[in-house]
Amino acid sequence: QVQLVESGGGLVQPGGSLKLSCAASGLIISNAPMGWYRRAPGKEREPVATIFSYGKIYADSVKGRFTASKDSSKNTMFLQMNSLKPDDTAVYYCNFRDFWGKGTPVTVSS
Predict the structure, then answer these.
(1) For residue 28, pLDDT beyond 90
(2) What does the pLDDT read at residue 30?
(3) How many Cβ atoms sit within 10 Å of the Cβ of residue 34?
């Protein structure tokens, strides 16, 4: 059974950084298409970054600031978030096909 567990969220000031982790079990992530999504308060869930075998796709709102990566030795996916803005405040979710983690909250506020 596939399980995805996010961690690393928290409160950070504007301009700060956070690194989210998604620990996977029940699948081998190395070649699996996986993504990060987020749901801001009062908004629909939206894609943030997706890692495919041939490359990565980022939402326009995070390009140049966020970097998604995988560590196959740890079977873990990461999301490095820099230059954070208040608009990045959301619950961040890890996704593989129909499987979702429970999310980790990120709050960007002074």
Answers:
(1) no
(2) 84
(3) 21
